[in-house]
Amino acid sequence: MTSTIIPVGQFIGAFSMPAVDEAHQPQAAYSVRLGTSTLDLNEQEFGVWVLARGLLEDQQKPVSAASLRSLVRRADLDDATPTIAALIARRLLTRVMPVGQAARQFCEAHQLMPLGVGLGNNRAELLRFTVGNPEFPRAHVTAAIYDLWAFSALSASLWLACEQAAKLDEEISALDLAKLVVQALPALLATDAAYIDVCSTTLSGKTS
Amino acid sequence: MVAVVLPIGHYLGQFFTSEQAEDPESHEVRIGEDVFQLSAAEYVVWGLAHSELETLQHTKPSRTAVESQARELGVADPTTAFSDLTEQGLLAQVMPVGNTVRRFAEQHQVKPLSLGLGNTAEQLGTLTLGHPEQPRIGVGYEVYRVWSFCAHYDSLWETCTALAEPTETEQTSTDPNFLVNSFFDVLPALVSVSCVYIDRRRS
Fold first, then answer.
1. What is the rounded CA–CA span in Å between residue A70 and residue A137?
2. Whole-number pLDDT of residue A21
3. Which of A21, A31, B82, B88 matches a 20 to 30 Å C-alpha distance to A81?
4. Cα–Cα distance, A61 to A190 (Å, whole number)
5. β-bridge pairing A27-34 and B127-131
6. Quick one: three-class SS letters along A176-205?
7. Nearest CA of chain B to the CA of A1: how many Å?
8. For A55, phi and psi rounded to 5 degrees?
C-alpha cells in the first residue's frame, strides 16, 4: 500500500510585488495560511503544493509521491523530490496511509475546513451529495462524508469531528470514518470543496 | 439609518427524501451544531438576504427591501417568514454604528468559502477572492487579511484583535475597531458572492 500525499493550508493568493529597480522583473510569491502563520512559496514550491491536490479529471485517485513527481515533470518544473521533502518539513505537505491508526493520527493533527456550500442531493440520486456553488457543483460524496464535511469546522480536529459523527450513527466507528475521510480527501481537495489546516493545539507559529 | 440584514448559517443544500417528490422536502442551513430546515418561503427570504453584488453598490439589504422582493417572488407572508428566521438566529439586523458592529463581531464568526487569488502587477492594491475559474470580488488589503485569518479564530472580533497586535512589519492597522468596521462594511458583498458565510461564534 502506498501513502497518500496531502497538501495542508488555505491558499490565500499569488502576490505580485513591485520590481525593486528597472533591472529586475516584478516578483511574485504564493501565500498559504497554516494556523496563524502565512507561509510564502516560490514558483517551484507552489507548483508541487498545488499539484499535490491532484487533477480534476483524476479526483478520485489519491496522489502518491511517485504520481506527484510525475505530475511535476509534466508541468515542466524541476525535480520534485527535494521540494516534497522541504514542504513536508514546513508542514505544507503530509503523508498518510489511509488505514487504521495512521488515518487517526492524521485526523488528530489536522482540521477539515469546508469551502463552498452544500448543494444537497436530488431525487434521482438520494444517496449522492454535492458540494460547491450553485453555478459550480464541484465534488460528489456519500452521506457520511457530506455530514462530516458540513460539521467539520466546529471541531478542533478532524478526529474529534469523526468521534462526534460516530456518536450519531451506531453503524460506523470514528476510526472507520477517519479512514473514509482520508480516502475522500483527493476528491474534496482537487475540487476546492475543502482544505486541510493544522490544529490549533499543534501550532507553534506566530501571526506573520 | 437602516439596519443591515445579514443571513447567518452555512447552507447545506436541498434535501430530497423520495424519488417521487416534485420538490425538495427542505432546504437545510447549519448554525453551530444546529441544523434548521427551511420551508420554501423561508428559503426565499433567507436567500434574498444574501443580496446581489450589483445592488450592494447602491444600498445594503434592509428588512423592507427583503420583504418587498420576497412578495414579488410570490411569498404570501414574508413578514412572518422574516420574523421566524430572526427568532431562530438565521437572520441578523445590525445597525452599522457605534458598538453594535463590535457586538455582532463578538457573537459571530466568519468562514471563507473560496480561495484567495492575490493581486496582479497592474492592480497591486486590489486582492481578489473566488476560484481560478470564477474570480468573484476584489477587496483592499485590510479586508483581505481579516478574510485570510478569520477561519482560525472563534469570533470575528478575536480575528480583528489578533491581527491588530503590533508586528515587526506593521502590515495592518493596530486598531481592532478600525479592522472590524472596515470588514463589516464589505461583509454583505462577501456574503453575496459566497466568499464567506457567517456562523455564531465558536464557544
1. 28
2. 64
3. A31
4. 10
5. unpaired
6. HHHHHHHHHHHHHHHCCCEEEEECHHHCCC
7. 32
8. -100, 145
Q: What are phi and psi of A147, to 5 degrees?
A: -60, -45
User: Which residue, A155, A149, A107, A193, is CA-closest to B154?
Assistant: A155
Q: Which of residues 140-179 of B touch A (CB under 8 A)?
A: 144, 148-149, 151-152, 162-163, 165, 167, 169
pLDDT 10s digits, B123-163 = 889 999 999 888 999 999 999 999 999 999 999 999 999 99
Write down how long chain B is.
203
Residues 56-115 of B with CB under 8 A from A: 111-115
Contact A130, A73 (CB under 8 A): no
Distance CA B163, CA A137 (A): 34
- Residue B18 makes CB contacts below 8 A (sequence gap 6+) with A123, A126, B25
- Name the nearest CA neighbour of B197 among B134, B130, B73, B110: B110
Kindly report which listed range (A54-68, A72-86, A133-147, B43-57) carries the lowest average pLDDT score.
A54-68
Which residues are paired to B134 by β-bridges? B131
Q: Look at residues A126, A128, A92 and name the one whose alpha carbon lies nearest to residue A110.
A: A92
